[in-house]
Design goal:
binds magnesium ion, five-stranded mixed beta sheet, globular, single chain, alpha/beta, about 425 residues, binds guanosine-5'-triphosphate, binds 2-acetamido-2-deoxy-beta-D-glucopyranose
Length: about 425
């Protein structure tokens, strides 16, 4: 009897021990055994339930699908999140920095409060799919930042299914309210219509389009205050049909955040003057009414060749932007947008969001808060930014033809940007001027 009960006690102890070991293993490999169901279970929602989405730290399908679930061969799951000391994970910016060449798995270290953002129609689904695939392959598969999609019409199931399947981070879908996509009441509809007819006759690109104007006004003044965007501090704008040609080895959001950058670009050029004949008058009026918003060390030299009297039409191309949402939500930027909006040029002309953003950044930010990402190679029809410097291109496994690089050609404003900022042009630029 006594011997028998001792045996039972032993069995019970062993059972406990086995359970404890099992629990320990399953807990330490929690993220793996959770599989992709947990992160994906939260994806594709329209609601604003954001819970743990910001600084999201779940491994994703790329991680889980790529390997077997063999914990022995699996590298430790990197620490990822908000509360990690950035000093523990220095940004590897050049090939000589430790960790630069490691592009495998989920990158450890902190994440910035940031998201990708795309304005698109349902019919753009396959073109945005191409863009997403490249952004994920070249960068986001290792970082898993969220992606916000915005539309003036409800997104359909195909759009949501396709984009959610391609994004490694969480996806959110927002419907733009009428107050952000339509004619404000102070616009004279007849006058606006006459302008469109006239521009159509003069064959000005998108000159007769109403929706293009709503799009430009939305991107100028409203995307950064959509409810879904209020959950973030930084954004990276991605349009349908764009390409990324080089690996991105470090987190550009972290670069922006840690270096105090508020706006960035890869391509710059001259605007068609027919679309903005009175934009500079409007800007001049704003500067006079709000001298308090003009930065002391501004980039007026980028915008004007005569100290501000006239606009030289230089702007950063806004279909690519990584920037600060807090800056766009600041009183300075809102005062600027509202002042321009009242003057009516989004409808009585065809002001683009590119010159609107660029003029704001150049006048209201100190020079050193604007950044040129030479190492992010990019294409949006018809222009290419392919990094200058053969060593850089091979280090980053670029697949762009350097002959197509637009930076140093006559119609680009990037040379002027370098001059205004006293920057030295990258070696080899002379070979790409035509
Ligand atoms: N939801 C929605 N999105 C739009 C509309 N018009 C444009 N967009 C989006 O707004 C962005 C800019 O529009 P684009 O048509 O690419 O304008 P663009 O870049 O000046 O011109 P392209 O050279 O044709 O690319 C893209 O992300 C489009 O998908 C619209 O009417 N509704
Ligand atoms: C992983 O996910 C698949 C499909 O969602 C499910 O069938 C499987 O049981 C999951 N595995 C684990 C370990 O949770
Ligand atoms: C991210 O930024 C938004 C907007 O400022 C803020 O409301 C939110 O609390 C931030 N999230 C985190 C985790 O810091
Ligand atoms: Mg476009």
């Amino acid at each position: 009897m006594a011997a028998g009960s001792a045996r039972y006690v032993r069995y019970i102890l062993i059972a406990f021990f086995v359970l404890a070991v099992f629990y320990f293993i399953s807990d330490s490999s929690n993220a793996i055994s959770q599989n992709i169901t947990i992160p994906h279970g939260n994806k594709g929602t329209d609601d604003h339930a954001h819970k743990d989405a910001v600084l999201n730290n779940q491994p994703n399908s790329h991680d889980a699908a790529g390997d077997t679930h063999n914990t022995k061969n699996k590298p430790a799951i990197p620490k990822v999140g908000a509360n990690i000391d950035p000093a523990e994970y220095p940004l590897a910016m050049t090939p000589n920095d430790p960790g630069f060449h490691d592009l495998s798995g989920i990158k450890g270290g902190p994440r910035v409060n940031a998201t990708f953002v795309t304005l698109a129609r349902n019919s753009d689904v396959w073109e945005i799919a191409k863009s997403i695939r490249q952004v994920e392959d070249r960068f986001n598969r290792r970082y898993n930042y969220d992606w916000v999609f915005l539309n003036d019409q409800p997104f359909d199931d195909t759009f949501k299914k396709v984009t959610t399947s391609l994004c490694s981070g969480k996806t959110h879908y927002g419907l733009i309210g009428e107050e952000h996509w339509g004619f404000p009441d102070f616009i004279d509809q007849e006058k606006a219509k006459k302008v469109r007819e006239d521009m159509k006759e003069r064959k000005i690109i998108y000159g007769d389009s109403v929706s293009y104007r709503h799009m430009c006004r939305f991107e100028s003044g409203f995307f950064f205050r959509q409810p879904l965007m209020m959950n973030y501090e930084y954004y990276w704008r991605v349009e349908p049909s764009v390409e990324l040609f080089c690996d991105i080895h470090y987190d550009p959001f972290r670069f922006m955040h840690e270096n105090g950058k508020k706006y960035s670009f890869v391509l710059s050029l001259y605007e068609y003057i027919e679309t903005i004949p009175t934009l500079w008058d409007s800007v001049t009026k704003f500067m006079k009414n709000h001298p308090e918003h003009i930065a002391e060390d501004n980039s007026m030299g980028f915008l004007s060749d005569d100290g501000g009297k006239t606009y030289n039409k230089c702007h950063f191309w806004s279909n690519f932007e990584i920037g600060s949402l807090s800056w766009l939500r600041s009183k300075a930027y809102i005062d600027y947008f509202e002042s321009l909006d009242r003057d009516g040029g989004f409808f009585y002309e065809r002001w683009g969001d590119a010159p609107v953003h660029s003029i704001a950044a150049a006048l209201m930010l100190p020079k050193d808060q604007i950044h040129f990402f030479n190492d992010i190679a990019y294409y949006h029809v018809p222009f290419t930014h392919c990094p200058t410097g053969e060593k850089l291109r091979t280090d980053l496994k670029c697949h762009c033809d350097p002959k197509n690089n637009f930076d140093w050609k006559g119609y680009s404003c990037t040379s002027r940007y370098f001059e205004v900022n006293g920057l030295e042009k990258p070696e080899g630029w002379q070979d790409q001027t035509d």
